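Internal ticket - ligand job 233, CO-5-methoxybenzimidazolylcobamide:
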Amino acid sequence: MSDEEDELILSELDDDELVEQMMDDLYDGMKEEIEEGVNILLERGWAPYKVLTEALVAGMKIVGNDFRDGILFVPEVLLAANAMKGGMAILKPLLAETGAPTIGRMVIGTVKGDIHDIGQNLVTMMMEGAGFEVKNIGINNSVEDFLEAIAEFDADILGMSALLTTTMPYMKVVIDQMVANGIRDDYIVLVGGAPLNEEFGKAIGADAYCRDAAVAVDTAKQFMTNRHNVRGG
Ligand code: B1M
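stdout (structure tokens):
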């Protein structure tokens, strides 16, 4: 690395250069630099959601592509994920700061066999920011984990996340068990994760597939409104 690069001062970069640099830093798993970049963009008046999507999520997409193409390997991707989480931790309270009244309760978790949690953590943050109460039960959840959590938390919505083509069929296992227990229609079931699509969501009996966290918020709001209308009369 040259002296010039050693002396790079993030706060001296303009917005475009900084975002580009943050993508490089995310790629290199540099958590402190990511945290600093996030803080600088916020100080410059960027909305937390803009920082999240345009710097962090966009940066993670590049990591994902190179992981797919065999350029990056698990240890590097773990470091990138750790750097991303550092940035998300700063944004979390800001996204949740709307002071909106609770509009619904959701349990969310990644399905059995799957340990990817960045996407569902992001959905959690955005849902909380929109006024939902969310219980995030983490990774690698069995049918029993999901069913216990929705009952205990008195959830309106069950959200399931899967990032692997090998784990996404487990969502159907959960939904089938809900049907067998006669509780399927008591909950709104939303599913998401990179390998899913709308067709898959329909095929497994979910209420909706959510492409990203913003869609998850809109979809959840829509279903909650319909639910209240039905209940109200
Ligand atoms: Co993994 N991994 N990974 N990985 N990993 C993927 C998913 C992969 C696509 C990479 C690739 O090849 N391009 C590939 C899956 C291929 C496939 O199944 N077809 C893959 C693989 C193969 C693996 C391993 C098998 C690798 C190995 O060991 N050889 C292994 C499996 C581990 C396991 O789960 N059992 C593995 C491991 C890992 C790490 C541990 C290194 C790390 C995870 C760290 C962590 O999460 N704490 C990791 C990562 C980081 C990725 C990529 C690079 C990034 C995922 C991510 O965080 N994206 C990923 C590549 C990719 O997705 N392009 C990849 C950012 C996040 C914001 O997006 O999660 O899509 P996403 O969430 C979005 C939407 O999908 C949606 O909203 C979110 C926000 O907008 N959404 C929901 C998600 N969940 C939702 C739930 C909802 C609603 C919306 O409910 C209502």
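Auto-summary: The longest strand covers residues 104-110. The mean pLDDT is 92.
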